[in-house]
Specification:
Strand content: 15-25%
Number of strands: 23
Helix content: 25-40%
Structural class: alpha+beta
Largest sheet: 7 strands, mixed
Radius of gyration: 36 Å
CATH superfamily of one domain: DD-peptidase/beta-lactamase superfamily
Shape: elongated
């Protein structure tokens, strides 16, 4: 090639490059100068997104219109990682810094201590062990364990190691480029770099080691962090926390936030969107806005506000949809349009009235379109349909009566606990309708402090989260004797005047048969007595004989008619308990003997009943035999109280045709107990008469191992309420008479006072 040809080619290349540069310059000029404003405006907008907006939940009120639960508006901060881009970690650290300055607590459930030296805050960070129905040991991954396996930080500890004697598998092929890319996005570069693991099971990482793995996968590395690839090539050790100049505290804080985000994005934890902080004040909001943090979204929302610290077990909570319930709610069609009414980000009632009356409280969600700029700020929004708030749910509950009994237990139970008692329950029902006027469990908790006290309460051996009134099942003891009495009277086994001689020990089946309590304790006998007297003195011998003549089938039949061992109809979750029977005994691999009927007749054997069942049983008895469904819902009104949406109509579950003379004979025995019997001193304080019955779980009278049971009704002539009270491992049921009399005194005195309340203080109709 000659020099002229070479120079021509050089000039041609220079000219081509000049043309390219000129073209690029013209394009840039057009983009930045001519159309800069237009293009900038376009970058500030995104494609409109459709949002479902939950409606404000309706309030919950007691029977007198007192507001128990309502809503309050709060501001919450959430994160939209799709807008954060490469600056994600810096944005999170800046948000954390703002929270620290303003003293804001943020959501961080990573079970690793927040400061060095890092340790796990739970004894089972990766998995928990339990036993299945067959007694086999079962390992179940925790949320942290599931994410750790998913991200490749650990091998699955719940999977048994391969059998060393099994046939050796061929070596795995080197992963291709596509596999490497998939692994990179699934678990970070660290998973690709790790090539050969030592043989045999590896110890699970310590908290600091795991935190190091998390920081690597999450990209939490400051200046001076060690290059892992180069360190491996040079045989150098990489520190567990390879974070360079980033502080350990900052690394842990950021990892806690990213842990929450990865749980949701990975599908390990199906829950609503991650909320960084809730109920934040204006100072924090201002500081965050000053920082202009992309992807940090501040929204107004509503949360439940509790106007009472009582009735926690009855009111329930509002929570995110749990993973195990997601499918149920996604398919739940409350309005009957054939389409599920929930999505995974919705809040739902959990437990108590919140869950039972979800369909009324939830309201109708709204739909809006929202446009955000590249920094996540809302540019515009348009409502397609505005949310309609939920209805106002009025309960049958008398919150003042509920509060009185809860305070009574809080005052009296500690001294009983010193003597071995554990928990207690009390149910008060309207005799004519089975409306739940009070339903108390001890110990209890405060819904306002639920989150902060969750762990402490969950670990409390007294189980304060257990609703003992509805889910605790106890032997009824002698309170069951009225069932035996009614069955014997109605079946013609006895009459009100029939007398049976108490011989102390009942020897029909065997010479060493069961004994009456008075014979066991004192060597005494009740002599020749009728059914009324037998109820007053709680003569076991009398009811042994009646029960034997009845037989277990008829005894169980009458128990079922009274609702014992049957659902009460209450809208909340309840145990049905169990009535002793040959079928139940044999289903547990035991033999039923005819003599077992004797124990059933006095409320023992395998019979287990809830306090609510006991209260409804007494209500059914004294109202003449009509068993109503127990219920907590009284009425539902529109959110503004202008319309009645629903009014509960009492439901009859069954009836018992009790002859008036038979009913009077049984009631008279309960009256005699309060006027002449062992609890007369307590009931003498009342200005009216009442009927009652004591009961313990053991034949031998008071014992720290026995559950103390007490039932009553009042007033005697025209019963209004039925009361059932249980103290777990109480010392004696007779002692409960004082507490019950306190309840009766308060109820009837408050009724008189309430009649004087002026009309303007009643609920708007």
């Amino acid at each position: 090639m000659d020099s002229k040809q070479f120079h021509r080619r050089v000039w041609a290349m220079v000219l081509l490059l000049a043309m390219i540069v000129a073209s690029m310059g013209a394009t840039l000029y057009d983009l930045q100068i001519n159309n800069g404003d237009s293009y900038y405006e376009q970058t500030q907008k995104t494609i409109p997104e459709t949002q479902t907006v939950e409606a404000a939940r309706g309030p919950i009120l007691d029977r007198n219109g007192q507001v128990l639960v309502s809503n309050k508006v709060i501001y919450q901060v959430s994160l939209d990682t799709s807008l954060m881009g490469e600056g994600r970690n810096d944005i999170i650290l800046a948000l954390i810094d703002a929270a620290r300055i303003e003293g804001v607590e943020w959501t961080d459930n990573l079970p690793i201590s927040k400061t060095a030296p890092f340790t796990f805050t739970t004894s089972d960070p990766y998995f928990v062990t339990s036993r299945d129905e067959e007694g086999n040991l079962v390992k179940t991954l925790t949320r942290l364990g599931r994410l750790s396996v998913y991200m490749g930080w650990i091998e699955d500890p719940t999977v048994d190691a391969p059998d060393p004697e099994a046939e050796e598998l061929p070596p795995a092929e080197e992963p291709g480029l596509l596999d490497k890319i998939k692994r990179f996005f699934k678990g970070g570069e660290q998973r690709v770099e790790d090539t050969k693991e030592p043989e045999g099971p590896q110890p699970l990482p310590t908290a600091e080691q795991l935190l190091g793995k998390m920081c690597g996968s999450f990209g939490l590395q400051g200046e001076g962090a060690v290059d892992r690839k180069r360190a491996k090539a040079e045989g150098l050790t990489v520190p567990d926390l390879n974070i360079g100049d980033m502080s350990k505290t900052d690394a842990r804080a950021a990892a806690g936030v990213l842990y929450e985000l990865y749980l949701r994005s990975s599908g390990v934890f199906i829950a609503n969107e991650y909320v960084f902080a809730s109920d934040v004040d204006i100072g924090f909001i201002s500081r965050v806005k000053e920082k202009s943090l992309t992807g940090v979204v501040i929204d107004a929302t509503t949360v439940r506000q509790y106007h009472t610290k009582y009735a926690a077990h009855l009111l329930g909570q509002v929570t995110s949809i749990f993973a195990e319930d997601l499918e149920y709610y996604m398919n739940l069609d409350l309005d009957g349009d054939g389409v599920g009414d929930y999505d995974m980000n919705d809040k739902v009632g959990r437990g108590g009235a919140e869950q039972a009356f979800e369909r009324y409280l939830r309201g109708t969600p709204g739909v809006r379109t929202v446009e955000r700029n590249t920094k996540g700020r809302v540019v515009s929004q348009d409502w397609k349909s505005e949310p309609e708030p939920g209805g106002a749910v009025m309960l049958t509950l008398d919150i003042n009566l509920q509060a009185y009994i809860e305070n009574l237990f809080a005052e009296k139970m500690p001294e009983r606990q010193d003597l071995g008692a554990e928990g207690a329950a009390c149910v008060v029902l309207d005799v004519k309708t089975a409306e739940v006027l009070a339903c108390v469990t001890y110990p209890t908790f405060d819904l306002s402090n639920y989150a902060s006290e969750l762990q402490e309460k969950a670990e409390d051996p007294l189980k304060p989260f257990l609703n003992r009134a509805l889910q605790g099942a106890y032997p009824p003891g002698s309170t069951f004797k009225m069932t035996t009495a009614v069955a014997g009277l109605e079946e013609g086994i006895i009459t009100p005047s029939t007398r049976i001689q108490d011989e102390g020990r009942y020897t029909y089946y065997t010479p060493d048969g069961p004994m009456c309590w008075i014979y066991r304790q004192f060597g005494g006998k009740h002599g020749l007595i009728n059914v009324t007297e037998a109820i007053k003195v709680s003569c076991n011998y009398f009811f042994f004989d009646v029960g034997r003549q009845l037989g277990i089938d008829r005894l169980d039949d009458y128990a079922a008619r009274f609702g014992l061992g049957e659902p009460t109809g209450i809208e909340l979750e309840e145990r049905t308990g169990v009535m002793a029977s040959p079928e139940y005994t044999e289903s547990h691999g035991q033999i039923w003997y005819d003599g077992n009927t004797l124990s059933v007749a006095i409320g023992q054997e395998s019979t287990q009943l809830t306090p609510l069942q006991l209260a409804n049983y007494i209500a059914t008895l004294v109202n003449g035999g009509t068993r109503h469904a127990a219920h907590l819902l009284k009425e539902v009104k529109s959110n503004d109280f202008t319309q009645v949406i629903y009014t509960y109509e009492p439901e009859v579950l069954g009836t018992i045709d009790i002859q008036p003379e038979n009913l009077e004979a049984v009631k008279a025995g309960m009256l005699a107990l309060t006027t002449e019997g062992s609890v007369r001193a307590a009931f003498a304080r009342l200005p009216f008469q009442a009927g009652a019955k004591t009961g313990t779980a053991q034949t031998g009278g008071a014992s720290p191992d026995a559950h103390a049971v007490f039932v009553c009704f009042a007033p005697y002539e025209n019963p209004e309420i039925a009361v059932a009270m249980v103290v777990e491992h109480g010392e004696g049921s007779g002692d409960l008479s004082e507490l019950t009399v306190d309840v009766l005194s308060y109820y009837f005195s408050s009724q008189e006072t309430r009649e004087e309340i002026p009309a303007e203080n009643t609920l708007i109709r």
